[in-house]
Amino acid sequence: MAWIQKRRRTDGGLSVRVEWRMGGGRSGVRQDETFSAGTDAQNLARAEGFKKMVEAAGSRWPDGWVKGEGFVRSPADHYVPPPYFAEVAEEYVRQIVDLSPGQRKRYLSQVKVLERTDVRGARIFHRRVDAISEKDIKAWLIDWDRSIKTKANYHGLLFGIFTYAKEEGQVDVNPCARTAPKRSRIRQSQADLRFLTEDEFRIAAQLAADAQDLLTLTVGTGLRFGEVTALWCSDIDLEHGTVRVNKAWKRDGEDGETETPGWLKKLVRPKHAMRGHHLGNPKTPKSRRTVTIAPALVDLLRPLVEGRPADDVLFLSPTGLAIHNSDFYERVWQPLQRDLQASGIAPFRFHDLRHTHVAWLIAGGAPLPHIQARLGHESITTTIDTYGHLLPAGDELISEIIETALSGGRIRPVMRLVRGDG
Protein backbone atom coordinates (compact mmCIF):
# COMPACT_ATOMS: atom_id res chain seq x y z
CA MET A 1 0.00 0.00 0.00
CA ALA A 2 1.30 3.49 -0.87
CA TRP A 3 0.67 6.79 0.87
CA ILE A 4 1.02 10.49 0.09
CA GLN A 5 3.03 13.14 1.92
CA LYS A 6 2.47 16.86 1.26
CA ARG A 7 5.01 19.59 1.98
CA ARG A 8 5.17 23.33 1.34
CA ARG A 9 8.33 24.46 -0.34
CA THR A 10 10.13 27.69 0.55
CA ASP A 11 8.55 29.33 -2.49
CA GLY A 12 5.10 28.48 -1.17
CA GLY A 13 4.34 25.75 -3.73
CA LEU A 14 3.06 22.30 -2.82
CA SER A 15 5.40 19.34 -3.20
CA VAL A 16 3.66 15.95 -3.11
CA ARG A 17 5.56 12.73 -2.45
CA VAL A 18 4.28 9.19 -2.92
CA GLU A 19 5.88 6.63 -0.60
CA TRP A 20 5.59 2.85 -0.32
CA ARG A 21 7.57 -0.25 0.60
CA MET A 22 8.72 -2.48 -2.23
CA GLY A 23 6.37 -5.46 -2.50
CA GLY A 24 4.06 -4.03 0.18
CA GLY A 25 5.64 -5.86 3.12
CA ARG A 26 7.12 -4.27 6.24
CA SER A 27 10.54 -5.55 5.25
CA GLY A 28 10.36 -4.03 1.77
CA VAL A 29 12.81 -1.26 0.86
CA ARG A 30 11.20 2.13 1.18
CA GLN A 31 10.55 3.84 -2.16
CA ASP A 32 9.32 7.32 -3.08
CA GLU A 33 8.58 9.59 -6.02
CA THR A 34 8.07 13.37 -5.79
CA PHE A 35 5.83 15.62 -7.86
CA SER A 36 6.62 19.35 -7.62
CA ALA A 37 7.02 20.75 -11.15
CA GLY A 38 3.42 21.87 -11.71
CA THR A 39 0.73 23.78 -9.87
CA ASP A 40 -0.49 22.55 -6.49
CA ALA A 41 -3.52 20.89 -8.09
CA GLN A 42 -1.42 19.28 -10.84
CA ASN A 43 1.15 17.94 -8.39
CA LEU A 44 -1.55 16.46 -6.17
CA ALA A 45 -3.43 14.90 -9.08
CA ARG A 46 -0.26 13.37 -10.56
CA ALA A 47 0.74 11.99 -7.20
CA GLU A 48 -2.66 10.39 -6.66
CA GLY A 49 -2.56 8.88 -10.12
CA PHE A 50 0.93 7.53 -9.57
CA LYS A 51 -0.12 6.08 -6.18
CA LYS A 52 -2.85 4.06 -7.90
CA MET A 53 -0.36 2.77 -10.49
CA VAL A 54 2.06 1.68 -7.75
CA GLU A 55 -0.68 -0.19 -5.94
CA ALA A 56 -1.90 -1.79 -9.16
CA ALA A 57 1.67 -3.00 -9.80
CA GLY A 58 1.78 -4.72 -6.37
CA SER A 59 3.57 -1.90 -4.54
CA ARG A 60 6.26 -1.82 -7.18
CA TRP A 61 7.44 0.73 -9.71
CA PRO A 62 5.04 0.87 -12.68
CA ASP A 63 6.51 -0.85 -15.74
CA GLY A 64 8.49 1.66 -17.79
CA TRP A 65 8.61 4.34 -15.11
CA VAL A 66 11.99 5.89 -14.30
CA LYS A 67 12.35 7.76 -11.00
CA GLY A 68 12.32 11.51 -11.53
CA GLU A 69 11.58 11.17 -15.25
CA GLY A 70 8.30 9.32 -15.58
CA PHE A 71 7.51 6.80 -18.25
CA VAL A 72 10.48 6.28 -20.57
CA ARG A 73 9.75 4.03 -23.53
CA SER A 74 12.26 1.89 -25.34
CA PRO A 75 13.41 2.90 -28.87
CA ALA A 76 10.98 0.32 -30.28
CA ASP A 77 8.11 2.04 -28.47
CA HIS A 78 9.16 5.36 -30.07
CA TYR A 79 9.07 3.99 -33.63
CA VAL A 80 7.08 6.19 -35.96
CA PRO A 81 6.47 4.74 -39.43
CA PRO A 82 7.71 6.86 -42.36
CA PRO A 83 5.10 9.12 -43.96
CA TYR A 84 3.33 8.34 -47.19
CA PHE A 85 4.93 9.36 -50.48
CA ALA A 86 2.42 12.15 -51.13
CA GLU A 87 3.16 13.76 -47.75
CA VAL A 88 6.92 13.78 -48.37
CA ALA A 89 6.43 14.96 -51.96
CA GLU A 90 4.29 17.92 -50.95
CA GLU A 91 6.67 18.87 -48.14
CA TYR A 92 9.59 18.73 -50.60
CA VAL A 93 7.85 20.87 -53.23
CA ARG A 94 6.76 23.48 -50.70
CA GLN A 95 10.27 23.90 -49.28
CA ILE A 96 11.97 24.58 -52.64
CA VAL A 97 13.03 28.21 -52.43
CA ASP A 98 13.76 29.14 -56.05
CA LEU A 99 10.45 28.09 -57.58
CA SER A 100 7.79 30.22 -59.24
CA PRO A 101 4.17 29.92 -58.01
CA GLY A 102 3.11 28.38 -61.32
CA GLN A 103 5.93 25.82 -61.25
CA ARG A 104 5.12 24.88 -57.65
CA LYS A 105 1.50 24.36 -58.64
CA ARG A 106 2.59 22.19 -61.57
CA TYR A 107 4.83 20.01 -59.37
CA LEU A 108 2.01 19.48 -56.86
CA SER A 109 -0.27 18.52 -59.72
CA GLN A 110 2.32 15.99 -60.95
CA VAL A 111 2.46 14.45 -57.47
CA LYS A 112 -1.30 13.87 -57.62
CA VAL A 113 -0.96 12.28 -61.06
CA LEU A 114 1.67 9.88 -59.69
CA GLU A 115 -0.54 9.00 -56.73
CA ARG A 116 -3.34 7.94 -59.08
CA THR A 117 -1.10 6.01 -61.48
CA ASP A 118 -1.55 2.23 -61.61
CA VAL A 119 1.62 0.25 -62.25
CA ARG A 120 1.06 -3.46 -62.87
CA GLY A 121 -2.12 -3.49 -60.85
CA ALA A 122 -0.83 -1.41 -57.93
CA ARG A 123 -0.63 2.26 -57.03
CA ILE A 124 3.00 2.29 -56.03
CA PHE A 125 3.03 6.02 -55.21
CA HIS A 126 0.13 5.55 -52.79
CA ARG A 127 2.45 3.76 -50.34
CA ARG A 128 4.71 4.87 -47.54
CA VAL A 129 7.83 6.47 -48.94
CA ASP A 130 10.14 3.67 -47.73
CA ALA A 131 7.97 1.02 -49.43
CA ILE A 132 8.82 2.25 -52.95
CA SER A 133 11.77 0.37 -54.42
CA GLU A 134 14.07 0.71 -57.40
CA LYS A 135 12.15 -2.18 -58.94
CA ASP A 136 8.93 -0.18 -58.61
CA ILE A 137 10.48 2.86 -60.30
CA LYS A 138 11.72 0.72 -63.19
CA ALA A 139 8.28 -0.86 -63.59
CA TRP A 140 6.71 2.61 -63.65
CA LEU A 141 9.18 3.81 -66.31
CA ILE A 142 8.56 0.73 -68.47
CA ASP A 143 4.78 0.53 -68.21
CA TRP A 144 3.52 4.09 -67.83
CA ASP A 145 1.80 5.14 -71.04
CA ARG A 146 3.55 8.46 -71.54
CA SER A 147 6.31 9.75 -73.79
CA ILE A 148 9.89 9.21 -72.64
CA LYS A 149 10.28 12.99 -72.36
CA THR A 150 7.30 13.19 -69.98
CA LYS A 151 8.68 10.27 -67.95
CA ALA A 152 12.05 12.00 -67.74
CA ASN A 153 10.42 15.18 -66.44
CA TYR A 154 8.51 13.27 -63.76
CA HIS A 155 11.62 11.25 -62.92
CA GLY A 156 13.50 14.47 -62.20
CA LEU A 157 10.82 15.44 -59.69
CA LEU A 158 10.87 11.95 -58.14
CA PHE A 159 14.65 12.06 -57.79
CA GLY A 160 14.38 15.31 -55.85
CA ILE A 161 11.62 13.94 -53.61
CA PHE A 162 13.54 10.80 -52.67
CA THR A 163 16.77 12.75 -52.18
CA TYR A 164 14.88 14.93 -49.71
CA ALA A 165 13.39 11.82 -48.02
CA LYS A 166 16.88 10.36 -47.62
CA GLU A 167 18.19 13.58 -46.08
CA GLU A 168 15.26 13.49 -43.64
CA GLY A 169 16.09 9.90 -42.67
CA GLN A 170 12.85 8.51 -44.11
CA VAL A 171 14.53 6.19 -46.64
CA ASP A 172 17.94 4.54 -46.69
CA VAL A 173 18.51 4.75 -50.44
CA ASN A 174 17.13 6.79 -53.32
CA PRO A 175 15.28 4.31 -55.58
CA CYS A 176 15.63 6.73 -58.52
CA ALA A 177 19.42 6.96 -58.30
CA ARG A 178 20.12 4.39 -61.04
CA THR A 179 16.97 4.63 -63.12
CA ALA A 180 17.09 7.95 -64.99
CA PRO A 181 16.21 7.67 -68.70
CA LYS A 182 19.27 8.24 -70.87
CA ARG A 183 19.50 11.66 -72.42
CA SER A 184 20.33 10.19 -75.82
CA ARG A 185 17.15 8.11 -75.74
CA ILE A 186 15.09 11.16 -74.83
CA ARG A 187 16.52 13.11 -77.76
CA GLN A 188 15.93 10.21 -80.17
CA SER A 189 12.29 9.97 -79.10
CA GLN A 190 11.52 13.59 -79.84
CA ALA A 191 9.98 14.53 -83.14
CA ASP A 192 12.10 16.46 -85.60
CA LEU A 193 11.78 20.22 -85.34
CA ARG A 194 9.41 21.68 -87.90
CA PHE A 195 10.81 24.47 -90.07
CA LEU A 196 8.67 26.38 -92.51
CA THR A 197 9.90 27.44 -95.90
CA GLU A 198 9.42 31.05 -96.86
CA ASP A 199 6.47 30.11 -99.09
CA GLU A 200 4.85 27.96 -96.40
CA PHE A 201 4.99 30.80 -93.92
CA ARG A 202 3.65 33.28 -96.45
CA ILE A 203 0.59 31.09 -97.01
CA ALA A 204 0.16 30.45 -93.29
CA ALA A 205 0.28 34.18 -92.49
CA GLN A 206 -2.35 34.90 -95.13
CA LEU A 207 -4.63 32.17 -93.77
CA ALA A 208 -4.17 33.44 -90.19
CA ALA A 209 -6.20 36.57 -91.04
CA ASP A 210 -6.32 38.87 -87.96
CA ALA A 211 -3.38 37.01 -86.36
CA GLN A 212 -1.12 37.62 -89.35
CA ASP A 213 0.85 40.41 -87.66
CA LEU A 214 1.41 38.31 -84.53
CA LEU A 215 2.75 35.38 -86.55
CA THR A 216 4.95 37.65 -88.67
CA LEU A 217 6.56 39.35 -85.68
CA THR A 218 7.13 35.95 -84.04
CA VAL A 219 8.83 34.38 -87.04
CA GLY A 220 10.82 37.59 -87.52
CA THR A 221 12.14 37.71 -83.93
CA GLY A 222 12.04 34.17 -82.56
CA LEU A 223 10.11 35.29 -79.46
CA ARG A 224 8.18 32.72 -77.43
CA PHE A 225 4.37 32.93 -77.29
CA GLY A 226 4.46 34.11 -73.67
CA GLU A 227 6.92 36.85 -74.65
CA VAL A 228 5.37 38.17 -77.85
CA THR A 229 1.88 38.36 -76.32
CA ALA A 230 3.29 40.22 -73.29
CA LEU A 231 4.80 43.05 -75.37
CA TRP A 232 3.64 46.60 -74.67
CA CYS A 233 3.76 49.43 -77.20
CA SER A 234 6.63 50.95 -75.19
CA ASP A 235 8.72 47.84 -75.90
CA ILE A 236 8.82 48.69 -79.59
CA ASP A 237 11.49 51.20 -80.66
CA LEU A 238 10.59 52.12 -84.22
CA GLU A 239 13.43 54.63 -84.57
CA HIS A 240 16.18 52.16 -83.73
CA GLY A 241 14.38 49.07 -85.01
CA THR A 242 14.37 47.02 -81.81
CA VAL A 243 12.00 45.04 -79.62
CA ARG A 244 12.67 44.86 -75.89
CA VAL A 245 11.82 41.59 -74.10
CA ASN A 246 11.62 42.21 -70.37
CA LYS A 247 8.45 40.35 -69.28
CA ALA A 248 6.37 37.31 -70.11
CA TRP A 249 3.11 35.71 -69.06
CA LYS A 250 3.42 33.33 -66.09
CA ARG A 251 0.90 30.92 -64.63
CA ASP A 252 -0.59 31.81 -61.24
CA GLY A 253 0.07 29.60 -58.23
CA GLU A 254 -2.35 27.42 -56.24
CA ASP A 255 -4.30 30.24 -54.63
CA GLY A 256 -3.67 32.83 -57.29
CA GLU A 257 -0.13 33.61 -56.08
CA THR A 258 1.89 35.76 -58.44
CA GLU A 259 5.55 36.66 -58.80
CA THR A 260 5.58 40.01 -60.55
CA PRO A 261 8.87 41.89 -59.99
CA GLY A 262 8.66 45.16 -58.08
CA TRP A 263 9.51 47.42 -61.02
CA LEU A 264 6.74 45.84 -63.12
CA LYS A 265 4.20 45.70 -60.30
CA LYS A 266 4.24 49.50 -60.19
CA LEU A 267 3.25 49.65 -63.87
CA VAL A 268 0.64 46.90 -64.09
CA ARG A 269 -2.95 48.08 -64.50
CA PRO A 270 -6.29 46.22 -64.76
CA LYS A 271 -5.92 46.18 -68.55
CA HIS A 272 -2.88 43.92 -68.10
CA ALA A 273 -4.90 41.18 -66.36
CA MET A 274 -5.32 37.66 -67.75
CA ARG A 275 -7.20 34.79 -66.12
CA GLY A 276 -4.89 32.30 -64.46
CA HIS A 277 -1.80 34.30 -65.48
CA HIS A 278 0.25 37.30 -64.46
CA LEU A 279 3.12 39.30 -65.93
CA GLY A 280 6.52 38.27 -64.61
CA ASN A 281 10.13 37.91 -65.60
CA PRO A 282 11.03 36.08 -68.84
CA LYS A 283 12.06 32.41 -68.70
CA THR A 284 15.73 32.97 -67.74
CA PRO A 285 17.95 35.98 -66.96
CA LYS A 286 19.32 35.95 -70.53
CA SER A 287 15.79 35.86 -71.90
CA ARG A 288 15.63 39.50 -70.90
CA ARG A 289 17.05 40.97 -74.09
CA THR A 290 16.74 43.48 -76.92
CA VAL A 291 16.16 42.08 -80.40
CA THR A 292 16.83 43.95 -83.62
CA ILE A 293 14.06 43.82 -86.20
CA ALA A 294 14.08 44.09 -89.97
CA PRO A 295 12.74 47.22 -91.70
CA ALA A 296 9.76 45.16 -92.89
CA LEU A 297 8.83 44.53 -89.24
CA VAL A 298 9.23 48.20 -88.40
CA ASP A 299 6.73 49.01 -91.15
CA LEU A 300 4.40 46.28 -89.88
CA LEU A 301 4.52 47.51 -86.27
CA ARG A 302 4.27 51.24 -86.93
CA PRO A 303 0.46 51.38 -87.32
CA LEU A 304 0.10 49.02 -84.31
CA VAL A 305 2.11 51.33 -82.04
CA GLU A 306 1.64 54.94 -83.11
CA GLY A 307 -1.08 56.85 -81.31
CA ARG A 308 -1.52 54.26 -78.57
CA PRO A 309 -0.64 54.56 -74.84
CA ALA A 310 2.85 53.30 -74.05
CA ASP A 311 1.55 50.68 -71.61
CA ASP A 312 -1.03 49.21 -74.00
CA VAL A 313 -0.55 45.50 -74.74
CA LEU A 314 0.62 45.34 -78.35
CA PHE A 315 -1.56 42.42 -79.51
CA LEU A 316 -5.12 42.17 -78.24
CA SER A 317 -7.91 39.62 -78.62
CA PRO A 318 -11.23 40.62 -80.25
CA THR A 319 -12.50 41.41 -76.73
CA GLY A 320 -9.75 43.99 -76.22
CA LEU A 321 -7.87 41.90 -73.67
CA ALA A 322 -4.42 40.31 -73.75
CA ILE A 323 -4.33 37.11 -75.80
CA HIS A 324 -4.88 34.02 -73.65
CA ASN A 325 -3.08 30.93 -74.95
CA SER A 326 -6.07 28.55 -74.76
CA ASP A 327 -8.41 31.10 -76.40
CA PHE A 328 -5.86 31.69 -79.15
CA TYR A 329 -5.51 27.95 -79.72
CA GLU A 330 -9.25 27.44 -80.12
CA ARG A 331 -10.06 30.67 -82.00
CA VAL A 332 -7.03 30.95 -84.29
CA TRP A 333 -4.68 28.01 -84.21
CA GLN A 334 -6.99 25.05 -84.72
CA PRO A 335 -8.82 26.67 -87.68
CA LEU A 336 -5.46 27.68 -89.16
CA GLN A 337 -4.15 24.10 -89.02
CA ARG A 338 -7.27 22.83 -90.79
CA ASP A 339 -6.82 25.46 -93.50
CA LEU A 340 -3.14 24.55 -93.86
CA GLN A 341 -3.93 20.88 -94.37
CA ALA A 342 -6.49 21.83 -97.00
CA SER A 343 -3.71 23.82 -98.72
CA GLY A 344 -1.32 20.86 -98.62
CA ILE A 345 0.91 22.29 -95.88
CA ALA A 346 1.84 20.06 -92.93
CA PRO A 347 0.58 21.31 -89.53
CA PHE A 348 3.00 23.03 -87.16
CA ARG A 349 3.05 24.35 -83.60
CA PHE A 350 3.25 28.02 -82.71
CA HIS A 351 6.69 27.36 -81.20
CA ASP A 352 7.84 26.12 -84.61
CA LEU A 353 7.82 29.76 -85.71
CA ARG A 354 10.73 30.26 -83.31
CA HIS A 355 12.49 27.25 -84.85
CA THR A 356 11.79 28.60 -88.31
CA HIS A 357 13.33 31.94 -87.35
CA VAL A 358 16.55 30.17 -86.39
CA ALA A 359 16.56 28.01 -89.50
CA TRP A 360 16.35 31.11 -91.68
CA LEU A 361 19.17 32.80 -89.76
CA ILE A 362 21.44 29.77 -90.06
CA ALA A 363 20.66 29.40 -93.76
CA GLY A 364 21.67 33.03 -94.20
CA GLY A 365 24.98 32.51 -92.39
CA ALA A 366 24.23 34.15 -89.01
CA PRO A 367 26.78 32.99 -86.35
CA LEU A 368 25.42 30.73 -83.59
CA PRO A 369 26.58 33.03 -80.73
CA HIS A 370 24.46 35.83 -82.21
CA ILE A 371 21.53 33.46 -82.53
CA GLN A 372 22.01 32.37 -78.91
CA ALA A 373 21.79 35.97 -77.71
CA ARG A 374 18.80 36.66 -79.91
CA LEU A 375 16.87 33.65 -78.58
CA GLY A 376 17.81 34.31 -74.95
CA HIS A 377 19.46 30.92 -74.42
CA GLU A 378 21.48 30.72 -71.21
CA SER A 379 24.17 28.63 -72.90
CA ILE A 380 25.51 28.26 -76.43
CA THR A 381 25.25 24.49 -75.78
CA THR A 382 21.46 24.77 -75.82
CA THR A 383 21.61 26.52 -79.18
CA ILE A 384 24.01 23.98 -80.67
CA ASP A 385 22.12 20.97 -79.27
CA THR A 386 18.84 22.27 -80.68
CA TYR A 387 19.90 23.75 -84.00
CA GLY A 388 23.45 22.55 -84.68
CA HIS A 389 22.22 19.94 -87.16
CA LEU A 390 21.01 22.77 -89.40
CA LEU A 391 24.53 23.98 -90.01
CA PRO A 392 25.74 23.11 -93.51
CA ALA A 393 27.60 19.83 -93.60
CA GLY A 394 30.36 21.71 -95.36
CA ASP A 395 31.58 18.85 -97.55
CA GLU A 396 31.75 21.13 -100.55
CA LEU A 397 33.61 23.81 -98.62
CA ILE A 398 35.99 21.25 -97.14
CA SER A 399 36.79 19.90 -100.57
CA GLU A 400 37.50 23.42 -101.82
CA ILE A 401 39.85 24.10 -98.88
CA ILE A 402 41.85 20.92 -99.41
CA GLU A 403 41.93 21.53 -103.18
CA THR A 404 43.35 25.01 -102.55
CA ALA A 405 46.11 23.65 -100.34
CA LEU A 406 47.07 20.80 -102.66
CA SER A 407 47.07 22.94 -105.78
CA GLY A 408 49.62 25.35 -104.34
CA GLY A 409 47.24 28.07 -103.21
CA ARG A 410 46.93 29.66 -99.76
CA ILE A 411 43.97 28.99 -97.47
CA ARG A 412 42.28 32.21 -96.40
CA PRO A 413 39.18 32.49 -94.16
CA VAL A 414 36.01 33.85 -95.70
CA MET A 415 35.34 37.23 -94.12
CA ARG A 416 31.75 38.27 -93.53
CA LEU A 417 30.47 41.55 -92.26
CA VAL A 418 28.03 40.78 -89.43
CA ARG A 419 25.77 43.38 -87.93
CA GLY A 420 25.60 43.20 -84.13
CA ASP A 421 22.36 42.66 -82.20
CA GLY A 422 22.51 45.89 -80.26
Describe the fold and architecture:
The chain has 16 helices and 10 strands. With 422 residues, it is mainly alpha-helical. It has 3 domains: 3-71, no CATH class; 85-189; 194-422, Intergrase catalytic core (hpI Integrase, Chain A, Orthogonal Bundle). The strands form 4 sheets. The protein has a 3-stranded antiparallel sheet with strand order 1-2-3, covered by helices on one side. It has a 3-stranded antiparallel sheet with strand order 6-7-10, with helices on one face. A hairpin with an 8-residue loop joins strand 2 (14-21) and strand 3 (30-35). Helix 2 (85-95) runs antiparallel to helix 3 (101-116). The longest helix is centred in the middle third of the chain and has 20 residues, at 148-167. Keywords: DNA recombination, DNA-binding. Residues 191-402 form the Tyr recombinase domain. InterPro entries: DNA_brk_join_enz (IPR011010), Integrase-like_cat_sf (IPR013762), Integrase_catalytic (IPR002104), Integrase_recombinase_N (IPR010998), Tyrosine_recombinase_XerCD (IPR050090).
